[in-house]
Amino acid sequence: MTEERFSPLHQRHLDAGASFTDFAGWMMPVRYSSDLAEHHAVRTAAALFDLSHMGEILVLGPEASDALDYALAGKLSAIAIGQAKYSLLLSREGGIVDDLVVYRTGEDRYLVVANASNREAVAAELRDRCSPFACDVQDESDDIALIAVQGPRALEILTEVPGVRVDGLDDLGYYRSAHGHYGEHAMLVARTGYTGEDGFELYLAPEAAPALWDALLETGAGAGLVPAGLASRDTLRLEAGMPLYGHELSLDTVPSQAGPGRVVNLKKEGDFVGRAAIEAGPDDGARVLVGLAAEGKRAGRADYPVFDGEDEVGIITSGALSPTLGHPIAMAFVAPDSADLGTELFIDVRGTRIPATVVSLPFYKRKA
Amino acid sequence: MPDKTTLQYTPEHEWVQVDGDVATVGITAYAAEKLGDVVFVDLPAAGSNIASGKVVGEIESTKSVGELFAPVDGEIVEANQAVVDSPELVNSDPFGEGWLIKVRFASLPELLSFDEYSALVGE
């Protein structure tokens, strides 16, 4: 039993009347008002998320690029300073230890952002894999708070927050980051997120986070910004077709099954952990991740079986009634023969067979 | 909206209001809050017989599925169509317009008082 952990913004969440959930040992806000209201705020205006439980691991030194090329599935040496890349930490067997966003913040400096539940595992693996290289791995998670502001009005709000200074914020591209300040505090500002909307992730010292949280809420109030919890975050990422560790991704899943196959770069020179297993490919008949759309209001949920005719061909990994689309959506692993777009399948919703169609991911895509 | 202190309760977070031999049943504000935003409600049809302790309906939120347990043996007199059409009533008015079913019963089992239920949920 590990000790319960609290975000540096915990008092703010209490004051806002949040409900809490245990997430990887952290007491994190699940909702403040209503899951649906928070979800819609992200799609139509903006919302704030506290993601201070995420793991932030620095890899720095003259051989940091080479080390990460070996440690991770993607070619991190190929990204420019200020660029970010979605990547995977694979096991030697090709399973997924974690999915990560990696920011190159300097010539010899990378910030690896890991899921809260995998922070220790990622830090330990990176230390081990990077040890032959001239670089250091530092777990900075306890010294970094993370606030995400997500939604179509995120840029407008962030630009107006008193004390926020980021050169070139207007022109910051998607999956790009920039160094900035909030008051006296250094801040990394990244145009990334996990909701399918435009938005920013703000990395800064924990002691500066409450004041920035307040300033964002105050500045954004007129634009419809609200604080949002993990419940809405889950329906948002599902609509955006983004895999979640523990649902779509796991040690028992190889990347080509779960969609992020393109994240694995077999063309990159040299070895990387998991390469041999990935080159060998998954077992014949390995299930693949698909999107399912259904009619009505009754949603298939994680672990519900999926049928093709009378044959059980798969299982749902995440599912909900889509707040934006108004019909049930799900991600599921199904047999490859049942995975073609347009295939008519059935979800067993607690004993009732609900028809569902294989559709392409994401379910929701924002207008450019 | 009925006076919550005069209602009876089940450990499954249902409230029961008795009027003669008909019980009106809903879920408590505590349960509605725990579920989150209710988006789908499935209720038994009028005329059907239900047995105490058995699952007779479902209340789905964006996040999870809650089951409606029959608090009493009896026959469904009415299911609340307004809630089927507008499931959010379960959140906005759980003790009022968000009621779920009316059941005609022969005898009522022992249920929890308001104080007992409040103690159960720690409020």
What does it look like?
The complex is a heterodimer of chains A (368) and B (123). Chain A contains eight helices and 21 strands. Chain A has helices at residues 10-15, 35-44, 64-71, 119-130, 154-160, 209-220, 230-239, 275-280; strands at residues 5-6, 19-23, 26-31, 46-50, 55-60, 84-90, 96-106, 109-114, 136-139, 145-150, 164-166, 177-182, 185-190, 199-204, 225-227, 288-294, 305-308, 311-321, 328-334, 344-349, 352-359. The mean pLDDT of chain A is 95. In chain A, helix 2 (35-44) packs across helix 7 and helix 3 (64-71) packs across helix 4 (119-130). The longest helix of chain A is centred in the middle third of the chain and has 12 residues, at 119-130. Chain B has a single domain, classed as Beta Barrel (OB fold (Dihydrolipoamide Acetyltransferase, E2P)). In chain B, 20% of the residues lie in helices and 35% in strands. Chain B has a six-stranded antiparallel beta sheet. In chain B, strands 4-6-7 form a three-stranded antiparallel beta sheet. Chain B is globular. At the A-B interface, helix 2 and helix 7 of A face strand 4 and strand 6 of B. Chain B: One of its GO terms (cellular component) is glycine cleavage complex.
Beta-strand percentage of chain B?
A: 25-35%
Number of helices of chain B: 4
Helix content of chain A: 10-25%
Strand content of chain A: 25-35%
Q: In DSSP terms, counting alpha (H) and pi (I) runs of 4 or more, how many helices of chain A? A: 8
Explain the layout of strands and helices.
The complex is a heterodimer of chains A (368) and B (123).
Chain A: E1 5-6, H1 10-15, E2 19-23, E3 26-31, H2 35-44, E4 46-50, E5 55-60, H3 64-71, E6 84-90, E7 96-106, E8 109-114, H4 119-130, E9 136-139, E10 145-150, H5 154-160, E11 164-166, E12 177-182, E13 185-190, E14 199-204, H6 209-220, E15 225-227, H7 230-239, H8 275-280, E16 288-294, E17 305-308, E18 311-321, E19 328-334, E20 344-349, E21 352-359
Parallel strand pairs in A: 1-3, 4-15
Antiparallel strand pairs in A: 2-3, 4-10, 5-8, 5-9, 6-7, 7-8, 10-14, 11-12, 12-13, 13-14, 16-19, 16-21, 17-18, 17-20, 18-19, 20-21
Helix pairs in contact in A: 2-7, 3-4
Chain B: E1 8-9, E2 14-19, E3 22-27, H1 29-35, E4 38-42, E5 49-50, E6 55-61, E7 65-69, E8 74-79, H2 81-85, H3 89-92, E9 101-104, H4 114-121
Antiparallel strand pairs in B: 1-2, 2-3, 3-9, 4-6, 5-8, 6-7, 8-9
